[in-house]
């Protein structure tokens, strides 16, 4: 029996479809239910930012979460497989036409991904003030809260429609199958079995 943490929304749907393909039956959460029990799996529907927490504490054996979120949270879990879904970039955005000049003093950067942001600027030895926001990040440069933002870009539509443009990319992200370190050892056969089956669906 494996417990699987899935992030609410499209990724959960895509992942359950993969399980459906593997086992030849439909896996579906009832209406507002957050738990789905089948003979071999218990699926948990959690917030995207909570997936790695469930897996890290072994409340779930495996989970599915974006690499961007894993990098931001830095929890010690096993990265098993790139599912190649939810592909996006973490990029720096500025008001269109503005110069990306890291020598400018007192730079302010707004982001919900403060750790990724901190690491990026530390590696460049640039000191910036990081302003933590929880969403609608694109607003920050428009009203002068920050000079630039670090945010997820998927289609680029949000930046474009708000008069921003990407000035640099920090990382590419996609969803990963992850495992708890102890489960990976204690339930190795089960974890590797599902890993191999998912890998087959993803990579043929
Ligand atoms: C993410 C991200 C951008 C948008 C990018 O926001 O923070 O705002 O998606 O997608 P696009 O390039 O396809 O326009 P999300 O929908 O997760 O909401 P939030 O950041 O406001 O929580």
Description of the molecule:
The chain has helices spanning 10-23, 51-56, 67-73, 114-123, 139-142, 157-161, 181-186, 188-203, and strands spanning 2-7, 35-37, 41-46, 62-66, 78-82, 88-95, 108-111, 129-132, 148-153, 164-173, 175-179. The strands form 2 sheets. A 6-stranded mixed sheet has the order 2-3-1-4-11-5. The chain contains 8 helices and 11 strands. The model has no long low-confidence stretch (mean pLDDT 97). The longest helix is centred in the last third of the chain and has 16 residues, at 188-203. It binds 1-O-pyrophosphono-5-O-phosphono-alpha-D-ribofuranose. The site of 1-O-pyrophosphono-5-O-phosphono-alpha-D-ribofuranose has 12 residues, from strand 9 and helix 6.
Short description:
The chain is of the alpha/beta class and 204 residues long. It has helices at residues 10-23, 51-56, 67-73, 114-123, 139-142, 157-161, 181-186, 188-203; strands spanning 2-7, 35-37, 41-46, 62-66, 78-82, 88-95, 108-111, 129-132, 148-153, 164-173, 175-179. The chain binds 1-O-pyrophosphono-5-O-phosphono-alpha-D-ribofuranose.
Question: Main traits of this protein?
Answer:
alpha/beta; 204 residues; binds 1-O-pyrophosphono-5-O-phosphono-alpha-D-ribofuranose; D-Maltodextrin-Binding Protein, domain 2; five-stranded mixed β-sheet; 8 helices; 11 strands; six-stranded mixed β-sheet; single chain
Number of helices: 8
Overall pLDDT confidence: 97
Number of domains: 2
How would you describe the shape? Answer: elongated
Q: Note poorly predicted spans.
A: none
CATH class of the largest domain: Alpha Beta
Task: Please summarize the sheet with the most strands.
Answer: 6 strands, mixed
**Structural class by secondary-structure content:** alpha/beta
CATH fold title of the largest domain: D-Maltodextrin-Binding Protein, domain 2
The CATH homology group name of the largest domain? Periplasmic binding protein-like II
Which quaternary structure do these chains form? single chain
The counted number of beta strands is 11
């Amino acid at each position: 029996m494996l417990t699987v943490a899935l992030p609410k929304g499209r990724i959960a749907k895509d992942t359950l479809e993969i399980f459906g393909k593997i086992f030849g039956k439909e896996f579906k959460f009832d209406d507002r239910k957050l738990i789905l029990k089948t003979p071999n799996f218990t699926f948990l529907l959690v917030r995207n930012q909570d997936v790695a927490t469930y897996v890290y504490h072994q409340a779930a054996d495996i989970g599915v979460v974006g690499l961007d979120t894993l990098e931001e949270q830095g929890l010690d879990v096993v990265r098993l497989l790139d599912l190649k879904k939810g592909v996006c970039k973490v990029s720096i955005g500025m008001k269109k036409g503005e110069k990306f000049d890291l020598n400018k003093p007192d730079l302010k950067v707004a982001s919900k991904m403060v750790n990724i942001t901190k690491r990026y600027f530390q590696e460049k030895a640039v000191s910036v003030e990081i302003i933590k926001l929880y969403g609608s990040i694109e607003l920050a440069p428009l009203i002068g809260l920050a000079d630039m933002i670090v945010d997820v870009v998927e289609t680029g539509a949000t930046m474009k429609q708000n008069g921003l443009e990407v000035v640099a990319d920090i990382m590419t992200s996609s969803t990963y199958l992850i495992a708890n370190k102890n489960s990976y050892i204690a339930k190795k056969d089960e974890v590797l079995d599902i890993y191999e089956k998912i890998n087959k669906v993803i990579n043929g």
